[in-house]
Amino acid sequence: MTRTALxxxxxxxxxxxxxxxxxxxxxxxxxxxxxxxxxxxxxxIAQGSVFVILRGGDSDLAESIASxxxxxxxxxxxxxxxxxxxxxxxxAIPYYVSPSQITALLPSKTPLGNGLVKVFSGGNxxxxxxxxxxxxxxxxxxxxxxESFGVVMAAVAQNASEGSQLLSPTNAANPxxxxxxxxSGLGPVSGDETIYQTQTTLANIPVEVDIGGVNxxxxxxxxxxxxxxxxxxxxxxxxxxxxNVSVVVTAGGVPSNFATIPVATSGRLCSDPxxxxxxPSEYQTLLSRSDVGLGAISLTTFTNIGGSAGxxxxxxxxxxFQEFSANQFGxxxxxxxxxxxxxxxxxDVNREPPLPPPPLISSSSPLNAGGQIxxxxxNGSLSLPRVLGTGSYTxxxxxxxxxxPSTGGTFTFDNGSGGTDVGAxxxxxxxxxxxxxxxxxxxxxxxxxxxxxxxxTWTGGSPGSYVSIFGYSSFAVGAPEGGNTFLYAYFTxxxxxxxxxxxxxxxxxxxxxxxxxxxxxxxxxxxxxxxxYVASGTIQRFSAPGLDLGLLFFGAGSGISVPLK
Length: 565
Prior knowledge:
Elements: H1 3-15, E1 29-31, E2 45-46, E3 50-54, E4 66-67, E5 75-76, E6 79-85, E7 88-97, E8 101-105, E9 113-121, E10 124-134, E11 139-140, E12 157-159, E13 165-166, E14 178-184, E15 207-211, E16 214-223, E17 230-235, E18 242-251, E19 254-255, E20 259-263, H2 280-287, E21 291-305, E22 312-325, H3 326-333, E23 343-349, E24 365-366, E25 372-377, E26 380-385, E27 392-394, E28 408-414, E29 426-432, E30 438-439, E31 454-459, E32 466-478, E33 485-496, E34 501-504, H4 506-509, E35 518-519, E36 526-527, E37 530-542, E38 549-561
Parallel strand pairs: 2-10, 21-38
Antiparallel strand pairs: 1-3, 3-8, 4-7, 5-6, 6-7, 6-9, 7-8, 9-10, 11-14, 12-13, 12-14, 14-17, 15-16, 15-18, 16-17, 18-19, 18-20, 21-22, 22-24, 22-27, 23-33, 25-26, 25-28, 28-29, 30-31, 31-34, 32-33, 32-37, 35-36, 37-38
């Protein structure tokens, strides 16, 4: 990219900040790229970083929409922003203002600590918000496609070995190639932050980049030529591949948001043969379509170990049928399971994450596959009614009676006469539990020390399947009428079943809050807020009229309630 093209690209990200990453749940000050929620252990606005203010309430933040490029002025379209911390007030530098959103640069000389941000426009204070200023809290820029909260996005990554082209599923990186990552929040700089910056490594701040769970070689990290915008040059490590290879940046000991990049062992087409039975050529064909119709049906059996009610096993089924645009399909990742060897971190609110996470993300156009999806197994059957107005089919309280035998079996699915978008189909899934996955160090895990990582070991499991390691913790973020609001942070890791072991990295666990048991309602019983699950997973294909790709998912595993410290 030329300097002019890169400036246009980066400023486009700045002015579209609210759509470049997970949408915030609560009105607060956010890093422009990560949108990590207040209360999370890696939350904070770094000195010299770009932050975003979203409108809270009925008052507009500005009278008009305006943006500016370098050199920057300290006010824009009549809007001024002050930041006061420890009795010291600095003038934030706006990049973009609108009635609903302001994107601005926090001066590097702003003191560390808690303070207040005030927005002035038309002679009036438009909003006052709390801010926590830290030295480092990097936000990794992701593909600017509007998506719902809780979806891991593709990182904005340029391949220096390919003329600085942006990575995509059909332009994947190869191990050994040089990438440039973008974002904001590595740390403060000195000098005038309204003009083009001199690129200098921030040597006083330790920075680590993990790609696919492997520590990558970093060749440069510091400011780009644009105020507040950081760049990191890194080499893709050997031994990683997939369409959802994780990438996370740790600056000053604080992990960023998690994102994905596509990596191919050779060529430019990514694939996940250990997870999704889709060949690179099939993937390219799907990506060439203007829209892609996808269906997924999930059948799982989980055993919760211990707890006040003792151990119990429950089966559950879920189906979803969605149509994705080419951009949604290619960049946000229709399949949110991390590539083998990777881990991803997401957030949700007031709802325990499903186990395992649905194979398809929900930010797409629903497809009508009929009124019900029928599930038939060796031990019984059930019907999944359609959630009105959506493409989802679910039985809210699990199957009753349980339909998955202890040895597994063959299960069939059908949608009767079909729906307006997806025609009639019958699909068959073979879920073998004759060699069950056994979580061998489960009883030894009485607490998870987040800073140390967590080793998981197992035996058994169906040959050729994968192991999904899933955990979450939560905390109360407010107390509206009727009880607390909970924010859930959860991670998912993927490993080959043949490995027999996997260590969840400290970077992953330190992105989750320590667990604190809190009541769901005032004076109610305390609820545990930390869980860990280990399960085997297999995915098979099925066909249906109106679908470009159908996936059948079968998972079996166990979980424990465990504190994260």
